Amino acid sequence: MRKVKWGVLGTAYIFERDTAEGMKQAENCELYAIAGRSREKADAFKEKYSFQKAYGSYEELLADPDVEAVYIPLPNTMHYEWTLKALKAKKHVLCEKPLAPTAQEAQKMYETAKENGVYLMEAFAYQHSPYIAALCNEIKKGVIGEIRYIESALITSDYVPGNIRMRRETLGGCTYDLGVYCCSLILRILGREPEKVQAVSTFSPEGIDLYTTVLMEYENGAKANFVCGMVLATEKNACLDRFQIHGTLGSIESVKFGFNAPGELSYHIRTFDGLDEVRIVSTPQNYRLEVEQMGRCITENEAPAVSEEFSIVNARVIDRVLQEINY
């Protein structure tokens, strides 16, 4: 199996907490280069995660001809700029969500990828999970009939004021940080963009949305709702992840579930004809799955699991939510 040489732009917490382990586990990934805003921090990460090279600037890493793919875990405001620079340097890019501040910018990123003959994929690790695939298979088989209503929620702790999630100028707020997960799950299950979007939020003194509720309506009468918020105990890493899907023949509800969570996850199926069953899905480390899939895109021309169309539609719905809450 050929291994893809990866470079990582930045030493962000999500890389330390999740993606680093996924990259280490990925069979087709070579941890080749790390870049930081300082050479000292890059050198520390090089030693900690066994990279072969460390760079004191992002430009230096992009100039390395041996780097094939770049993972971008930078703050939301930096995704657009550095993804474009990486794509123009002929690097394949896996960029953290949200891909860009707006759907228009996301579209420009994909156009740039095509112009330079490289892949771009938004890093929704959970979208690679066999748990999500199992849910979609239940829907496709018609186990609960035609979907009439779906809801999703992701509620976390809030953060101290200095955290980038708590600042408007760094595209903080719960819709950008959490709502993109809930929205993307609904879009994955229903497979299309809603006709109507309504939203309401509560805001912090700094002007970020702390709690947002969204109602989506479809042309066939189906409804969807998602709730996101950063309102639990401050800096405690508390989290509430859940969903329910109701159809004309029954329902599916999360039991043991977390966006990006590995392990023995489960959901509960109930149907009007008597089926009442909890189904368990063994789920590997999601970040490993997305890195391996991106690697196969590069070496085997596999289509990205998180497609351009999917990411653009998700960004477009988020644009509509942000417009509704005047954000």
Give an account of the 3D structure.
This protein is α/β, with parallel strands linked by helices and 327 residues long. The protein has helices spanning 13-25, 39-49, 58-62, 79-88, 103-115, 130-141, 174-190, 286-300, 308-324, and strands spanning 4-9, 29-35, 53-55, 69-72, 92-96, 120-123, 147-157, 196-203, 209-217, 223-232, 239-247, 250-256, 263-271, 276-283. The strands form two sheets. Strands 8-9-10-7-11-12-13-14 form an eight-stranded mixed beta sheet. Strands 3-2-1-4-5-6 form a six-stranded parallel beta sheet, with helices on both faces. The chain starts with a strand and ends with a helix.
Features:
single chain, 327 residues, alpha/beta, eight-stranded mixed beta sheet, six-stranded parallel beta sheet, 9 helices, 14 strands, 35% helix, 31% strand
